[in-house]
Amino acid sequence: MASTSNSTSSKIITLRSSDGEVFEVEESVALESNLIRRMMEDDCANNIIPLPNVTAPIFYLVIEHCKKHAEMKDNKEKKKELRSQGEELLKSDPHTYSNLMEAVNYLDIKSLMDLTAQWLADFLKGKSPRLIRELLKIKNDFTPEEEAEILERNRWAFD
Amino acid sequence: MRKKKRTGRSIVQDKNHKNMTHMKNQDEDHISKLPDAILDHILSLIPLKCAVSTSILSKRWKELWKTMWADTTTLDFCGKFATSDQSYHDTCDIINRFVHSHRRSTIDTFRLHLDCVPDIQEWVEFAVEKRVKEIDLDFTKSMYRLRKLPPRLFSCDSLTILKLSDCNLKLPLVFRGFSSLRVVHLTRVEIIQSSLERMLVYCPMLEDLALKSCSDFPMSEISAADLKNIKSCLLIGGCNWSANVGSFLSKLAHVQILTICQMMMHGFKVPGYENAPGNFPITLPDVIELQLEVLNIHSLSDFYDLLTNWNFPCLERLMVKWSPNSCLWSGRVQPSGCVFHCLKMIEMNGFYGDDKQMQMVTFFLEKAVKLDTIVLVTPKEGTEGYVRYDEASFGFLHEQLLLLPKASRNARVVIQEDERR
């Protein structure tokens, strides 16, 4: 959870993003990240923990989703809602998605890794390659001959 | 370094900031720049066919699925994999190609849901050699049944889950059992009684048994000790069953989740027990969830018989699925002494406010002293049994439900439409 002025009794961890912003985060949330957990075990607990690979806006997103993920435990509706949010994000802002994915990977947060990976997996499912290319701005760099060859080799996958 | 402590509110501000800086990146392909490991992981989450189709996206994606495939632990040939216009030989070719290019030494799952019945011997041998944990073979969509399972299957030590649909199952003469098998789900499987009994006897770890519309049923040779680990049991449909189902169930001393259909309830009188009234009701002490399928109004009396002759002292959840077409009720008296001390949740699917259904709701509201919630699920529009309620009649139904006497003061009655397709 992002810190608030009337903070609760739980321990607060201080983190610094790559662009120099300082965050205060409750320990229980921070420990979702295996990277932070390992750093704390190496006795950085009393200092500010630097996160050189994560920018502040992305770190906000991570915290926000950690919070949502904690809330959705045993709540099927929330789970469904959270899972469906990926479609929108990938359509409107694939760059933020890829930054979030890399941050989650770097911070090593298992629950969010599963969620964000599922977002892209769901996104790819049931869409034609043409539509996927268009939405994700993937440039088709095959020659027509190369493309025909791939289509022929795995014809069954393309009906 | 800015030393600025933030609150949750400033997220909005930040989003704006982020959107501005990222505007110029909108036409770039960021997803393809993700590391191989991440994209591999993502491809492993989508069906094989869809993963293969990503090879056409760009050169970056061309070979990605192959890494994923060679290293996958789940070989899943089902769903859209087998399309109707794909010939029998195409299907075999494709599966052969994938089986041959798989590199990992072990696999978890081998799943085959086909609309044809090819020779599966080589594939099953492949799976057994890779120490497969779950085998799932389904030929429901095929015009033919699989007549004989490859013998190698029966020596698969690593197997923990076996699911078979629309095939014949005959154990070989020499069968040492599956020492780690925990789950057996058989649907429309032709299996003779003795095979089924040996299966139960020689799979000591079996926890979850589901027999759906199978040809036969385990009978006399099974002892309670053979079934002591079974925690979940589903018995639906099939012939030759109902006469023995009571005696079989009475041996499931530790079953926790029990699913049965209305046909089964006819057979709930246990031979031998009639002469010893002291043994009634038969107690299944660990059952916490009871699911009753395709119950129609006619079987309400069977249902009350079930509650008279059987005792589920720890029952917490009850799910009833009604069949849409109701028959005449034979007017059996409700069991009088019956009280549910632990029942917290009841779900009734196919609820349309019929008199007899209301009787059942009344019955449970009176008898379940700890009830939290009773959920009445009405059939979805366009499905059988759908009743259109205008606001007035819906309100009336709701009012009637609220007026019913409740043994548990806090019990909630919820009406909702079926969300499933």
From TrEMBL, chain A:
It comes from the Eukaryota. Residues 11-70 form the SKP1 component POZ domain. This is SKP1-like protein. The keyword Coiled coil does not apply. It holds the Pfam family Skp1_POZ. Gene3D superfamilies: Potassium Channel Kv1.1, Chain A. The keyword Transcription does not apply. GO terms for biological process: jasmonic acid mediated signaling pathway; protein ubiquitination; ubiquitin-dependent protein catabolic process. Part of a SCF (SKP1-cullin-F-box) protein ligase complex. Involved in ubiquitination and subsequent proteasomal degradation of target proteins. Together with CUL1, RBX1 and a F-box protein, it forms a SCF E3 ubiquitin ligase complex. The functional specificity of this complex depends on the type of F-box protein. In the SCF complex, it serves as an adapter that links the F-box protein to CUL1. SMART domains: Skp1. Pathway: Protein modification; protein ubiquitination. It comes from Cinnamomum micranthum f. kanehirae. Residues 110-157 form the SKP1 component dimerisation domain. Belongs to the SKP1 family. Keywords: Ubl conjugation pathway.
UniProtKB/TrEMBL annotation, chain B:
Signal peptide: none annotated. It comes from the Eukaryota. Residues 28-72 form the F-box domain. Residues 1-20 are annotated as: Disordered. It holds the Pfam family FBD. CDD domains: F-box_AtFBL13-like (cd22160). This is F-box/LRR-repeat protein 13-like protein. It comes from Cinnamomum micranthum f. kanehirae. The lineage of its organism: Eukaryota, Viridiplantae, Streptophyta, Embryophyta, Tracheophyta.
